[in-house]
Amino acid sequence: MLKVFLVEDELIVRESICQMVHWTKYGFELCGEAGDGEMALPMIRKQKPDVVITDIRMPFMDGLELSRMIRRELPDTKIIIISGYDDFEYAQTAISIGIEQYLLKPVSRQEFMEALRTIRKHYDEENVQRIYQKKFEKEMQRYEQHYQREFFEKLISGKCALNEIYEFATQQQIDILASAYNIILFQMNWTQKQELWMEEDFEKEAQIWDKVQAFLLNREEFLFFEYHVFCYAVVVKGTTEQIEELAQECALFLKECLEQGKEKLQWFVASGKPVERLSMLSESYESAAKVFALRYTRQKRYITYQQMAEQAAWDKDLNLGDIDAKVMDTKLVHTFLSSGLLEDTEKFVDDYFSMIGENGLKSSIFRQYVVLNIHFSTVSFVSKLGCDEKIITHNLEIDPIGGTVEQARKAAVSILKQGIELRDKGSKNRNRTVLGRALKFIQENYTDADMSLHRAASVANVSANHFSALFSQEMNQNFIEYLTELRMNKAKELLRCTNMRSGQIALEIGYKDSHYFSFLFKKTQGCTPSDYRNQKEREKKVCHG
């Protein structure tokens, strides 16, 4: 039912209009009436009607002024003006305000019903457009938050002015306002090479990822961002009283989902420190990042900033003592080299050294042993990648015999960074091969209605999650943007060179819903398919004329 509000100062006319239509029969509900604009405005603000029918000339506030205020406060409300004055200036003003219908008194029942039917039609069309808009936005969000990365960087940098953040949030239609915030960082990376995956492995990965996305994208308290490849961030927002509970709810849900990957999934969830100002969100991020850096050395997979801050809880977990022999296990270094980020290297080394313990690091000989252990572990790692082991250099000048702990730390950081840079260089080459294979498949099959990110990822023999991150990183646009661009270019070609109807073109390029195709065409090209075809026809005539 569309709600209708009537504003008319003449009681007889108002009653006549009320009785003119069987409102419910035609899908309308008369929700209120008033004798002038001043009385009507607060009632309209409260009722938020879909349609306002108003006279022009009324005491206290006329219909034109009322219409201006309605258009400003309720832009989706349709307005019908009824006037006893056949005056061009009134009609011109009404058009400039954005009035839907302008009727002259006396209004016949047939004329009035036609106006209501037109408004009903416009509402239905706009509702369809809203549905398609939500569908498109959901498709965009499902695969990649690529367009929001810049926003996340603004939030956590601590250097961006609040008005710039609010303006960016408004442009991206992101609700960032809250009285308290927290940040959760999480990682999900599959340990087994995807070339060895079975079909059920791909299905399992898709199920876990779909469950995670559905939870995060459907809750207004959570803003979901891609942080790095395989690493993601959630900005939790809420009241001061509920922020810790919301952060815990989010983290525990992620933990429950990621545990389903069992031994094949390497995952970690880090929860930061809650803050009460948006301008302090960088502090929450820093606290979460410190916890997140522990993912390479801790067996525990979910850690909060509060747990890290409680020394008593850490004493047991850190096993501080003379020397913890387990820390010297090369698997720790290999784990970091396999999935660590270049910017996490110093944090990893700090944590690695702290786990060894101060007593062990007091010995210069043992410090040398620690650095050499990292060196040979890195050499072993890059050798498996097919790199020349001589590429890894150990600069003795910064870590001489008898050098300080800080010098040993710098040497370890230098060696590990070299290993990660070699890994990333090799990974880029492999990624280009994977992406090239997938792009060829997409370009050959983009008109298939069943084309999806999962199909393209399957051809590339990688998981959908990995492919989504890789695609946006290398192509600077997400999968759905790329697919839509290919289809729209083909649609323009068919509109220019054939007489195919819009519905036929939609099916030809992979859209089962012709109306959705028309929506996407207008959204991406700025005009409807028919307008585009007519424009090209006119251009042809001009050229041949």
Short structural description:
By secondary structure, the chain is α/β, with parallel strands linked by helices. It contains 23 helices and ten strands.
Plain-language structure description:
The protein is α/β, with parallel strands linked by helices. The protein folds into four domains: 2-139, 3-Layer(aba) Sandwich (Rossmann fold), CATH 3.40.50.2300; 146-304, Alpha-Beta Plaits; 319-445, no CATH class; 446-544, Homeodomain-like (Arc Repressor Mutant, subunit A). Helices cover 58% and strands 12% of the residues. It contains 23 helices and ten strands. The chain has helices at residues 11-20, 37-47, 63-73, 88-97, 109-143, 149-157, 162-171, 199-217, 243-258, 281-292, 305-309, 311-318, 330-339, 345-356, 358-361, 364-384, 405-445, 453-460, 464-475, 479-497, 502-508, 514-525, 529-544; strands at residues 2-7, 28-34, 51-55, 78-83, 101-104, 180-190, 222-228, 231-238, 265-271, 302-304. The strands form two sheets. Strands 2-1-3-4-5 form a five-stranded parallel sheet, sandwiched between helices. Strand 1, helix 1 (11-20) and strand 2 form a beta-alpha-beta unit. Helix 16 (364-384) packs parallel to helix 17, helix 18 crosses helix 19 and helix 21 crosses helix 22. The radius of gyration is 32 Å and the shape is elongated. The chain starts with a strand and ends with a helix. Mean pLDDT is 82; it is low at 311-322 and 396-402.
